[in-house]
Write a structure and sequence with these properties.
Radius of gyration: 21 Å
CATH topology of the largest domain: Creatine Kinase, Chain A, domain 2
Structural class: alpha+beta
CATH class of the largest domain: Alpha Beta
CATH superfamily of the largest domain: Glutamine synthetase/guanido kinase, catalytic domain
Number of strands: 15
Strand content: 15-25%
Largest sheet: 9 strands, mixed
Number of helices: 12
Distance between the termini: 33 Å
Mean pLDDT: 95
Shape: globular
Number of domains: 2
CATH architecture of the largest domain: 2-Layer Sandwich
Amino acid sequence: MPREELVMVCCSDVAGQTRGKGFPVKLLDARRNRGVGWTGTNIMITGFGAIADGPFGSFGDLFLKPDLDTHVRVDFDDDEEAPEQFVLSDICNTDGSPWECCPRAFLKRGLAALREEAGLLLKASFEHEFHYDGVEERPNSGYNLDAYRRQGSFGETFLYALAQAGLEPDTFMPEYGPCQYEITVEPSIGLRAADNAVILRELARATAWRHGARASFTPILRPDAVGNGVHLHFSLLDAETREPVSYDPARPHGISERIGSFAAGVLEKMPALTALTAATTISYLRLVPHRWSASYNNLGIQDREAGVRRAPLFEASGASPEKQFNLEYRAGDAAASPYLFLGGLVWAGLHGLRQGLATPDATEEDPSEFSDAELERRGLVRLPQSLAAALDALAGDEDLKAAMGTVLHDVYLKHKRFENDLLKDLSPEEQCERYRLVY
């Protein structure tokens, strides 16, 4: 049957959803500068479909301007289905200027400031965990060859799709949680790292759908389960030479002065930052001690419960420590827009550089066992234990408000507080089920 290929021009919104409009792909180049029409109120659509009250109403016009460098076309060689085809975009005013609430523009501004003020680039990769319901839940599946076997051809098809989209798959494995798998890809510089995270999630869903199943990036499947984290690995490069500048063997744990200040800013802002990186009510079921997730704003050395972890260096790999060195932000999940997640981290790190903050002392013990006095002495705090508390922290952070801009800051708080109110009367189990279907 004859068909006309379509492409969808998409944005990643406040709810971490990929939304947009489609048109014939043959028009894509001609529409590179005018894209498709959009409206401000679309940013207020929650993951559950209900629209939060916002400042836009029925007024105003915007457009989605496609970034053709992000054009994805994956042909799964299935005559019954169209190729998976989309392109990521910026949300722009009708004169072409960035819209003040565009998440991608928020990240771009942070990356530009990091380069202009500090002469640095950020290199990063999001490490994703997700639930694949195309396999039966069985005990003892964590890292198990049987769990790897039972996903059949899903993993191979998924990695093929990622490679076709220009990503570089690194590892794929059965993880510890129920029907849980993990995928990692090679790091990219700046904006592309967040673009890749959006592309990866959508290709996981597309691959699962073509296997008659679903992939869900929900933060946690049920209250007693292991959660699906998104850990952000990051390092710094000199903007001129593009050489790594994060490793200094003369300093404690090899943490250079510049990335030490950057990390200090992230940790100082972390209670407020969690509102952007752990963006659902159920995200906070994960952020508790002894669940292999973050619960304090501490710097840890090879500690998988640290807020920020210094990742290990593998001498046996033959790669130089300078190129290997990275830090890992652990208090995040895939309910967050990658642009808000990475943008928040960049602006928090820039705060540390602007203030000349010293590299935090690394913890070698479990912070949950510290007394209140010891926590205060070390400058550590427990991360927010609810979305509402995280939003209150974000509301009171003037630095992040300035970075986001007054309108985006207000829009984000309204959106997420509305979402919090939507779910407040549901049990944790009911909330988990609602989010499973959304993400």
